[in-house]
Amino acid sequence: MIFGILAEQTKALEQPTQISASAQTQDQISASYGDFAVTGDASTVSFADSVLTISGGEHSVSMGEGKSSTNQAIKIVGATTLTLAGINIESTNGAAIEIAPNASFDVSILLADGSENELVGQSEAGDGWNGSAAIQKNGADSTGTLVIGVPNNSLGTGSLVATGGKGAAGIGGGYEAGTRNITFTGGSVKAYAGRYGAAIGGGSSGTGIGIKLLGGIITAESLFDDYPNMYQNTIGSGNQESFNAADNMLDGDVVLIASGPSAVLGGFSLNRGIYFEFNYGMNPFVPFTYSYVFENVTISENVELPL
Q1: At CA 169, angle to CA 212 and CA 125, rounded to 5?
Q2: Residue 181 and residue 203: Cα distance in Å, rounded?
Q3: Distances (CA, A) of 282 to 132, 223, 257, 263, 294
Q4: Per-residue pLDDT of the chain (307 residues; tens, 9 = 90+)
Q5: Contact 173, 205 (CB under 8 A)
Q6: For residue 267, how many other CB atoms are within 10 A of its CB?
């Protein structure tokens, strides 16, 4: 069912620009790396073994010429602002986008206006589990932050779909890994858990702490395929750790649509926003449904909600 919500629109369109060869400054590039087209500082980009590695700076990435999808991956190993300008990754070697484990540096992932970005973590490895998150930030004690949002002065029309592999979150921890300090500030984000993982938060047996939903339209869904052995949060911690989620919050001009088989939100403060919950409890076919509005919320004009 689609709902249209009208509200004041205050932001102007600003598309990310590509740097042409004639307009390049020193160390700036606009070039192909594997299946990707990258604009940014050439000194902080490398490509080997089907992985695009970024060690810092500001970059924009899209699919290369003639490419609509890839199984190649992106790894971030230093403080980075990365704009996704239309990428489609189904990784066969770990996370689609991986932030170095236990990172102490900050990463921003921005969704370019009008771009559609789809990321799928490796489904399984080794013993048939050991899947990876679509955007993976392993480290229950990590001091670094991950912010997912939109560029300054944008309309917020960029979108992201993130699907985790077995035992992994859609966004957050991989198999048996916790995560910390993930913030959402804008855009349309859909996150789907791998089996036993949170959609946003910890992988199986991993905690999800410090998840802040401050802006955008966020859809999160955890799987219902093995009840009663599933105790993960949809947003928060993975299987068996749902009661250890903490310091998570809904607080801003944000719409959250969350569904799952158990404790949908873990360790949450519900301060401001619009929240729709579909809690399946013990019935995978007929959920309990709830809707809430906390304080005054302003979102973009004619927003479609995938309820």
Answers
A1: 155
A2: 15
A3: 27, 13, 20, 12, 28
A4: 333 332 333 333 233 333 333 344 556 788 999 999 999 999 999 999 999 999 999 999 999 999 999 999 999 999 999 999 999 999 998 999 999 999 999 999 999 999 999 999 998 765 667 899 999 999 999 999 999 999 998 888 999 999 999 999 999 999 999 999 999 999 999 999 988 899 999 999 899 999 999 999 999 998 755 554 466 789 999 887 777 788 999 999 999 999 887 678 888 999 999 999 887 765 656 667 777 777 777 766 555 665 5
A5: no
A6: 23
278 contact partners, CB below 8 Å, separation of at least 6: 257, 258, 259, 260, 264, 287, 288, 289
Structure tokens at 129: 């589990």
Q: How far apart are CA 174 and CA 5, in angstroms?
A: 35
Contact indicator for 55, 62 with CB cutoff of 8 Å = no
Q: Is 287 exposed, middle or buried (0-12, 13-18, 19+ CB in 10 A)?
A: middle
What is the Cα 256 distance to its own chain's centre? 14
Could you give the 3-state DSSP secondary structure of residue 68? coil
Three-class SS of 84-150 = ECCCEEECCCCCCEEECCCCCCCEEEEECCCCEEEEECCCCECCCECCCCCEEECCCCCCCCEEEEC
Only one residue has tokens 């802040």, namely 212
> In the block, which residue shows the tokens 């590039």?
29
* CB-CB contact of 66 with 94 (8 Å): no
Whether 145 and 154 have beta carbons less than 8 Å apart is answered as: no
Helix (H, G, I), strand (E, B) or coil at 23: helix
pTM: 0.87
